[in-house]
């Protein structure tokens, strides 16, 4: 890794941690907050690539484990949720052959963002449903796994997968769209960052 990459990862990772402790969050009735914590990780992906964003995600997990009120449990959920977004971006880039540095038409950008979002939620929602059922909610709520679905459905009066899926779909849209909108001016103003 070059010094420039390490510097960018450090800068954007610290921004993620500041966003975690900032009040810039929208709580949902489902217990999850819609936030901007993963946006810098998406920016790292766009500027530096897949493996740099995975490295930043590992470091984000460690940082969130220390500063987040949700401790290592919430940090692990953020890690896997954001990893699914990054994987969606990578698959979309390969399918659409989109190049942030050399794209010509806005239509290509919109198609890339839409494909990345759809692939990301196709990975994220099933992963988060499974992780909440098998792992997070039994630990967080202190109940046996068999009681997770009935308890959550009783509380919210909608199917369990929707309780998990809706806020994760919204969070993925925030991560992808805002991440791309933040990264594009950086690429235009400082194209040498991508070299």
What does this entry look like structurally?
With 195 residues, this protein is mainly alpha-helical. 76% of the residues lie in helices and 3% in strands. It has 7 helices and 2 strands. It has helices at 3-21, 39-48, 50-67, 71-96, 106-141, 148-156, 160-189; strands at residues 25-27, 33-35. Strands 1-2 form a two-stranded antiparallel ribbon. A hairpin with a 5-residue loop joins strand 1 (25-27) and strand 2. The protein is globular and about 55 Å long.
Task: Put the structure in a nutshell.
With 195 residues, the protein is mainly alpha-helical. The chain is built from 7 helices and 2 strands; from the N terminus they run H-E-E-H-H-H-H-H-H.
Features:
195 residues; mainly alpha; two-stranded antiparallel sheet; 7 helices; 2 strands; globular
Mean pLDDT: 93
What is the approximate shape?
Answer: globular
SSE class: mainly alpha
% residues in beta strands: under 5%
Characterize the biggest β-sheet.
2 strands, antiparallel
> Which oligomeric state applies?
single chain
What is the helix/strand order? HEEHHHHHH
Number of H- or I-type helical stretches: 7
């Amino acid at each position: 890794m070059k010094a420039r990459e390490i510097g960018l990862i450090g800068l954007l990772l610290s921004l993620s941690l500041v966003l975690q402790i900032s009040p810039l969050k929208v709580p949902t009735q489902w217990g999850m907050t819609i936030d901007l914590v993963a946006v810098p990780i998406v920016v790292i992906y766009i500027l530096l690539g897949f493996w740099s964003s995975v490295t930043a995600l590992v470091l984000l997990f460690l940082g969130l484990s220390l500063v987040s009120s949700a401790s290592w449990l919430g940090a692990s959920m953020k890690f896997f949720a954001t990893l699914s977004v990054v994987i969606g971006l990578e698959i979309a880039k390969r399918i659409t052959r989109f190049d942030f540095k050399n794209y010509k038409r806005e239509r290509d950008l919109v198609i890339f963002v839409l494909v990345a979002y759809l692939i990301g939620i196709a990975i994220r929602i099933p992963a988060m449903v499974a992780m909440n059922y098998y792992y997070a909610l039994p630990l967080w709520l202190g109940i046996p796994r068999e009681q997770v679905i009935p308890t959550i459905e009783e509380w919210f009066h909608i199917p369990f997968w929707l309780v998990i899926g809706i806020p994760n779909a919204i969070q993925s849209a925030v991560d992808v769209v805002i991440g791309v909108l933040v990264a594009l001016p950086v690429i235009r103003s400082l194209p040498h960052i991508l070299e």
